[in-house]
């Protein structure tokens, strides 16, 4: 089974994943296959500020099954400007998780 690994440490909040997905699937206004949210700004104890951008696949995400069948990457991974999204076998992606700011998404089996 393949999945999607996202490293929030390097997400710049550019919304490329959102827009690429929306165009690829023809989603209507207010519909998303992946949705970017901003956490923060939060002031830390040392006075610095923290922002996190968190792309989260929604229930509409099928990891671009049609693109993958053609040998291509999911469109969010292909268009990621921060190079923080990875697609591949879940076991391989799990081994790449080296930070608490990384999340592994897998499709639900139906």
TrEMBL record:
Keywords: 4Fe-4S, Iron, Iron-sulfur, Metal-binding, Repeat. Residues 2-31 form the 4Fe-4S ferredoxin-type domain. Its main location: other. It comes from the Bacteria. InterPro entries: 4Fe4S_Fe-S-bd, FDH_Electron_Transfer_Unit. It holds the Pfam family Fer4_11. The keyword Metal-binding applies. It is found in: Cell envelope. This is Oxidoreductase. It comes from Adlercreutzia faecimuris.
């Amino acid at each position: 089974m393949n999945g999607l690994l996202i490293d929030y440490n390097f997400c710049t909040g550019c919304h490329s994943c959102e827009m690429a997905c929306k165009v690829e699937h023809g989603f209507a206004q207010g519909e998303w296959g992946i949705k970017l949210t901003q956490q923060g700004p939060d002031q830390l104890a040392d006075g610095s500020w923290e922002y996190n951008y968190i792309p989260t696949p929604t229930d509409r995400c099928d990891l671009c099954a049609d693109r993958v069948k053609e040998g291509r990457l999911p469109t969010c991974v292909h268009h990621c400007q921060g190079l923080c999204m990875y697609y591949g076998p879940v076991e391989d992606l799990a081994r790449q998780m080296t930070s608490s700011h990384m999340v592994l998404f897998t499709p639900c089996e139906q």
